[in-house]
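Why should sequence recovery work at all? Because a backbone constrains its sequence more than one might expect. Tight turns favour small or flexible residues, buried strands favour hydrophobic ones, and helices have their own preferences. The token representation captures these environments compactly. In the example below, the structure is given first.
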């Protein structure tokens, strides 16, 4: 009879007891639902069985891994519910989880003539029925050929293409009431765990609204994000232009020798979008300050330089500065709860000096521009002077640029705000989307290894703080932007794979980053690698992989 250690206490259970049974004993001691467990340091689903002694700890839906398991399970329920509602028609219907919009997931449904409003109502009711019945979700490992036959019978050719390029002899397949699917990551053991959700019609598709990780016991209403939706749909359409919507599609293009064609079309589409934004700015004669903000590793520097070039083609003279040069001197830098300098908060910037300088420029005066010296921990002046003439514009880059407090003194008509983010539109397959935060972390990992000599451990272990800062200081203001630019490139992860894998393989087993590194290695294993040779020197991808004309 195996012994299980929970905290400082020991319990004995029959061999073969599921972790779900053990969890039920300890659930009352937790505020949020337990979704997964760590057993002897390894992540385990609740459906797994106890076979030996070990230590157990719990992961709830307020943890990132637990929340992702909730989301995946809800996705499987949605796809199954659509098939149930449509009956025979559902066998040829394709449901694709496209992208996130805040706390919602936008899904398209192809192959049905049903009104989307009616379908949304019926799907929600069917999901509620499934949750009430506590239907088991089981996992079984199949030889790859058997799994592919299951997928073919369910009209899932996207999964067939995916596993054609993956070096694996087996596939873990989940089943729910006779429906079989593959999911990248762990799942909950039954539909009873997914009770909070809503399904609505939205722009000709379905919107699956779920609780957030910060508040897993409440379902908040959906806040429309039209600008983000428009750009994400535009990126999806860009993928369709090169016949790529999933990783399997991308792998096919690479193996057919068409990678250069994919790169050139994607880069041309991004350049066209940058030109459109430049035209918007040019048409507003009073604009003097172009404010560029976005989360970490969004390619803001490359975007600012490419926008500068486009604006110059309209006859404007551009100047690029970073708001970081207006950091307060080190002795005035705020301290975070760990006792470290906090450069992410708005108070880390000398807003009064920044606004005074910008107003002086607006009034035609010449100013001395500071440069923040990180070694000295203070602003220094190196003879950089600036004066804005009639056809001059200033491009300002910084994480707080969209926050109205950062430019409180500047007239609204003189400002043009741009939100830049890498919002991945490429899916692993139709039911497994790629989180944009994963793509950005990989971008940062390869860039920081190249430019700062940081290892993957540093990037992974510090990423939670990066995400926390984005949630506080960037995302709340994204809908206030005058323009949105999606910097994600449909091919980039195939390029980044070649540089990221060696870094991830170096993460030691005894480091807290190890299991995240393993997860990222599994993710990258879906991709066929691609070299950097065909990537243009002005590409946003070059900001991270090196060899660009805007960066060292």
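From this structural description, the recovered sequence reads:
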């Amino acid at each position: 009879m195996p012994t299980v250690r929970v905290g400082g206490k020991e319990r004995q259970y029959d061999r073969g007891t599921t972790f779900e049974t053990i969890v039920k004993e300890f659930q009352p001691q937790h505020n949020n639902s337990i979704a997964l467990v760590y057993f002897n340091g390894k992540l385990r689903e609740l459906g797994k069985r106890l076979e030996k002694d070990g230590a157990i700890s719990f992961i709830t839906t307020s943890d990132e891994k637990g929340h992702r398991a909730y989301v995946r399970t809800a996705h499987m329920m949605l796809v199954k519910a659509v098939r149930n509602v449509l009956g025979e028609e559902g066998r040829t219907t394709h449901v694709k989880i496209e992208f996130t919009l805040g706390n919602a997931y936008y899904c398209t449904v192809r192959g049905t003539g049903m009104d989307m409003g009616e379908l949304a109502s019926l799907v929600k009711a069917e999901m509620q029925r499934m949750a009430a019945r506590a239907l088991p979700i089981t996992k079984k490992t199949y030889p790859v050929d058997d799994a592919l036959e299951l997928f073919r019978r369910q009209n899932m050719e996207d999964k067939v293409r995916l596993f054609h390029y993956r070096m694996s002899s087996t596939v873990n397949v989940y089943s729910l009431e006779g429906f079989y699917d593959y999911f990248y990551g762990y799942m909950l053991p039954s539909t009873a765990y997914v009770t909070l959700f809503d399904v609505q019609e939205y722009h000709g598709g379905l919107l699956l609204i779920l609780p957030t990780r910060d508040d897993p016991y409440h379902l908040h209403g959906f806040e429309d994000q039209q600008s983000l939706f428009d750009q994400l749909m535009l990126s999806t359409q860009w993928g369709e232009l090169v016949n790529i919507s999933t990783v399997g599609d991308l792998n096919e293009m690479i193996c057919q020798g068409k990678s250069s064609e994919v790169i050139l079309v994607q880069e041309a589409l991004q350049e066209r979008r940058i030109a459109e934004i430049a035209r918007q700015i040019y048409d507003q004669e009073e604009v003097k300050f172009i404010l560029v903000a976005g989360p970490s590793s969004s390619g803001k520097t490359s975007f600012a330089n490419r926008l500068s070039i486009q604006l110059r083609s309209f006859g404007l003279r551009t100047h690029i500065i970073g708001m970081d040069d207006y950091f307060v001197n080190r002795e005035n830098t705020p301290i975070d709860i760990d006792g470290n300098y906090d450069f992410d908060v708005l108070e880390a910037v000398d807003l009064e000096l920044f606004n005074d300088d910008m107003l002086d420029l607006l009034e035609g005066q010449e100013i001395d521009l500071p440069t923040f010296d990180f070694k000295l921990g203070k602003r220094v002046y190196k003879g950089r002077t600036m004066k804005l003439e009639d056809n001059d514009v200033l491009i300002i880059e910084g994480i707080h640029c969209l926050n109205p407090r950062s430019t409180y003194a500047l007239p609204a008509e003189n400002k043009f705000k741009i939100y830049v983010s890498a919002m991945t539109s490429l899916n692993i397959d139709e039911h497994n989307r790629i989180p944009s935060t994963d793509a950005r972390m990989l971008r940062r990992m390869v860039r920081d290894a190249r430019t700062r000599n940081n290892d993957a451990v540093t990037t992974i272990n510090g990423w939670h703080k990066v995400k926390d800062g984005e949630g506080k200081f960037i995302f709340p203001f994204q809908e206030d932007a005058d323009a949105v630019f999606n910097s994600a490139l449909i091919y980039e992860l195939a390029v980044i794979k070649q540089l990221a894998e060696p870094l991830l393989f170096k993460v030691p087993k005894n480091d807290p980053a190890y299991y995240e590194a393993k997860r990222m290695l599994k993710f990258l294993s879906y991709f066929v690698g691609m070299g950097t040779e065909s990537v243009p020197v002005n590409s946003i991808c070059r900001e991270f992989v090196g060899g660009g004309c805007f960066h060292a």
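A few observations help interpret the result. The two ends are 60 Å apart (CA to CA).
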